[in-house]
Design goal:
By secondary structure, this protein is of the alpha/beta class. It has nine helices and eleven strands.
């Protein structure tokens, strides 16, 4: 083991990690409904740190309550959250492990809207305000709707990420990650299969990448070069993995170009993933968790216009669902190759 490169330190221009094992973003609904953190979160992260990984990437941490993917995840949307995240960082640092906070916004991929998104003015049969997205179109799998953000709302989204990064810096984290993969808000702008805008934030690859690049540049202007900043990208989106008639989305070549632009804007590393939705036939790894879906999927029935159909298929015709939607070649080895790629010019 001492001679295995996995156990050698990795050095970025602003971060050194004792080995090359990064625990990717995993977690559960273990915090308070209002977005405040709990001791369970601290203990959860400490257990992984004791296991020997060099760095931990947190679960998705919303930079604004309106864009949380699920309730009961700790947020970083206001200053009184800083002390909690400082406690998490201290617990992880006590085990000689680094802590990277993943900043996120759901966009239209909001599995379970919180009560803050209830809309008393909505027409009958509609319950929630549509979260900000790149598009008014619904997602292909669940049928969850978003609302295309205006230019002024995009500026507000940028500021929310900047504020979240500044709070993370004040909490003492070793780095931040922008969750730009797996169908969430940044993906909804980046993807050629999802982004249908005709303004400067749509159309060409450069236009679709502009929102992400603005966020990176604005964070660098706020926190400087001393804070490690990583971007999680779905290198190949495969938006047509379930419904073959859909556009495939971004290719590896396009994602490589986005990574280069991200480097120029100030990113230090790329976290490689896949898929334009979540769950996706290639992410997470392995076969579709049909038993889990049967047990838990009912909680999001009110979120999208395809959730009831999916639920009935999970519950009563699971083999039909698996055959039609989850039978693409290679699905069982989905995310095994996910990696952290150092941007060469950013190395020390």
């Amino acid at each position: 083991m001492d001679r295995d490169i996995l156990f050698e330190p990795i050095r970025f221009r602003n971060l050194e990690v004792r080995n090359r094992l990064f625990r990717s973003s995993i977690s559960g609904r273990i915090d308070n409904y209002d977005g405040s953190g709990t001791r369970a979160r601290i203990n959860f992260e400490r257990r992984f740190a004791r296991g020997g990984v060099g760095a931990i990437i947190s679960s998705h941490v919303p930079v604004h309550i309106s864009g949380r993917i699920l309730p009961n995840y700790a947020t970083i949307d206001r200053d009184d959250r800083i002390d909690f995240w400082h406690d998490v960082v201290e617990a992880v640092h006590a085990e000689s492990c680094k802590y990277i906070l993943q900043l996120s916004m759901s966009g239209r991929q909001q599995d379970l809207p919180g009560v803050e998104n209830l809309d008393p003015q909505a027409p009958q049969g509609s319950f929630y305000r549509r979260p900000l997205s790149s598009t008014d179109s619904r997602d292909s799998f669940h049928g969850i709707a978003g609302r295309a953000a205006t230019r002024s709302e995009i500026k507000q989204l940028v500021q929310w990420f900047v504020d979240g990064a500044e709070r993370a810096r004040r909490a003492g984290v070793d780095g931040i990650e922008l969750h730009s993969a797996n169908g969430y808000l940044f993906t909804q702008f980046l993807s050629s299969a999802i982004n249908d805008r005709t303004d400067e934030y749509g159309g060409s690859l450069k236009g679709r990448a502009e929102f992400l690049l603005e966020v990176i540049r604005a964070i660098r202007d706020q926190v400087g070069d001393g804070l490690f900043l990583m971007v999680k990208l779905s290198a190949v989106e495969r938006d047509n993995a379930i419904f073959r008639w859909r556009k495939p989305g971004n290719t590896l070549e396009e994602s490589a170009q986005i990574a280069q632009w991200a480097e120029t804007a100030g990113a230090d590393a790329i976290h490689v993933s896949t898929g334009s939705i979540f769950p996706h036939p290639r992410n997470p790894a392995g076969a579709f968790p049909i038993k889990t879906a049967q047990r838990t999927y009912g909680t999001i029935l009110a979120s999208g216009n395809r959730t009831l159909l999916n639920y009935l298929l999970f519950r009563y015709l699971p083999q039909l669902f698996l055959w039609f939607c989850w039978s693409i070649p290679g699905a069982a080895v989905a995310n095994a190759g996910a990696s952290i790629s150092t941007l060469r010019s950013r190395k020390r």
